[in-house]
Fold:
Amino acid sequence: MTIKGGYCQKILEMDLSKNNKRVIEVSDSFAVKYVGGRGWGARIIWENLKHIKDPLSPSNIVVIAPGPLSGLYLPASGKTSFSSISPATGLYADSNMGGMFAVEIKQAGYDAIIIRGRAEKLSYLFIDDDCVEVRNAKKYKGLGCTETERQLKEDLGDETLRIATIGPAGENLVKFSCINSEWSRNAGRTGMGAIFGSKNLKAIVIRGTKDLPVFDLTRLMELGEHAYKTLKSHRLFEFWQRQGLMTVVDYANAAGIMPTHNFKDTCFDDADKINGEVMETFYKIGDAACYACSMACGNVNLVKEGRYAGTVTEGPEYETACMFGSNVGINDFAAILKANYLCDEYGVDTISTGNLIAAVIEAYEKGILTLDELDGMALHWGDSDSIMELIRKIGEREGIGNVIAEGAHGLIKKWPAIKQLLSQVKGLEQSSYDVRSAITMALAYGTSDIGGHHARAWTIAKELEVGADWTLDEKAAIVIYHQTVRPLFDMLGVCRLPWIELGFNESAYAEFYSAATGIETGLEELLKRSEAVYNITRAINIKLGATIEDDFPSWRCFNEPIKTGPLVGKKLDREEYTKILKLYYNKRGWDENGVPVLKTLDRLELTDIKI
Amino acid sequence: MRKLTVIPERCSGCRLCELACAINAFGVNNPKKAKLRVFSLYPHPVIKKPIVCNQCGIPKCSENCPAGAIYIEDGIVKIDEKTCVACQMCVTSCPFGAIFVHQEIAVPFKCELCGGNPKCVEVCPKKAIIYTPEHILGQSTRLAGVLKYAHMKEVEYFEHGIAKKLRYADIEKGKTSGDNNDN
Structure:
């Protein structure tokens, strides 16, 4: 098995404490076994785990990795994974972003970058092919993400540099701060921004000029062209270009799964004021796409009149529209755009921020929090002024913002009574799907290795449509299948949306992989590699103290039935959930506490993983 | 003669044009070797614009080439690699920045319209790059000018219950012929 393309087989390791650069050669067997992206990230984190103390200490590392397919001629090949130990959950974490950053890393000749240590002063990492320098970033201290990127490009005199940066929130170690690139592409979840901040790393600036190695470019071109044609012929292709993920608003609201008023309700009376139609008709001024993607799900929006006039941002997509729309009771699309802009600028995750703000509003409504504790802000649903102010306070860690900045775990520590209002798993704030009507989605959130995020498995639509007669066994199986396919995209360094949204066949990715690397591989084999990585992240979490309790969704799912909408009366049964969780463990080859057993590790060729 | 033209409003900035161009031109997966480039600016102004060669009739690149290496063949501006001294005068003198260099390629390179079947046009998922007959160039501006003509009138009507507007430019009333009034 010899790699003939796809990989650069080099990792750039930068120790910021020692200002020491090292280029690590990657063996064929390591490269193929863990595929790339989040797979490499998880394996490298595992190997360093015993040295990592606190997530925000210099001992933590972050692995920034595109995949073997990143940058190649195939749909949406611009994904970069960031892997680390999360300051929000204290467990394994990864988050990925689109845009152009992945391509640039690979063109500079690296498959991954590992950041260690902590720079003495606020710095940025400058990479121009083989030239790697740590430079002073004092000038950019406190600047927002967009502004930092703009200034850096101006100062360095090159508009085509690719930049990943943190905003004030990352510098201030906000537990759900993100890394921003190309102005609106974010590695949003799990607090990657705070990890950069803790390393005094304001930004990575990169320029690469090298050819990407491809084993059989002719075959790849044929496969790529076929893929683009297939996507284009999909009946929703053009609609998707127009509205992107904003199309989900109408679906989720009609289905009764759209979190509203801090996950209390599941449909929003004013959903038709914050949907894709409104965006397209009144706000959209342009399309935006990640590298080599024909789907262009990004939407550039501008507020042309009213109090938020002049606000321009790429976004929102569904998650943001829901978390800063229905979930906080805002029915003004312009206000959502403003909130989106502020989050991008401060560099905080829109999902976590909207989720936490909604919980604080409800806590005030229920009398858990007093006016004093909220710095005198009498919060209520749809109170956009206070919500904007809260985003600022979080980013700058001021007053109540300083408490919210600690994330779900921090809020619970300070005010234990808020726990019942918080929708979170493992300390990661849950993204925008209510799970009381769909146990597979609850299981997906519960067993997601990074916490309450839908990226690992999104089974809710299928269960609601056709899952009425599924047995618990089948339900557990479908979650595992999704948790195996979806992370594979992150490992290959491509986007999953062509597959999940426009029905592009996943087996095509095995062909892409074979053409790129020269290693003939089937989908089964890739899925096995993906399953192995899920076991590694599980092992990391167990080592870090995760227990079966961390695999449960939030309190509300079991105790408060849905009050309105098409799924009224639904809630989860704790006993049934426990049952499906045990089934899930069993199917995964994990023991009853969720620990992978030796036989499983053996089957996945992970015998060196000692839990 | 057909030429490339771009509609920046449509461009999503995906750079598929760059990638396909480079693969077609040099046989490598490297968008930095593309013979066109997409520029994305944000947020002031928000614009994405592919930069393409206009195949000028009197090319500045050719005028400024000290080696006489740039010539026109069938309306396409070409660089003769053998004559070129790689001084990059053409790169800086092109008013559009449509000539490119790369450290691994000996001489500057530019768009030669892929022998009449431009790859960028073929792959653009947003139809932002168009290969159009020369006489069409400028027509959208002319059309916009006509549509914006200030003295147009409007009539509102209903068709299947939907309100519609029709705009028209009325003839001048009360005058038989403009110049006859003095007589």
Summary: The first helix of chain A runs from residue 28 to 33. The mean pLDDT of chain A is 97. Chain A touches chain B at residues 71-73, 100, 103, 107, 146, 150, 159-160, 182-183, 208-212, 214, 217, 220-221, 228, 232, 241, 285-296, 298, 300, 302, 312-314 (CB under 8 Å). DSSP finds 25 helices and 17 strands in chain A.
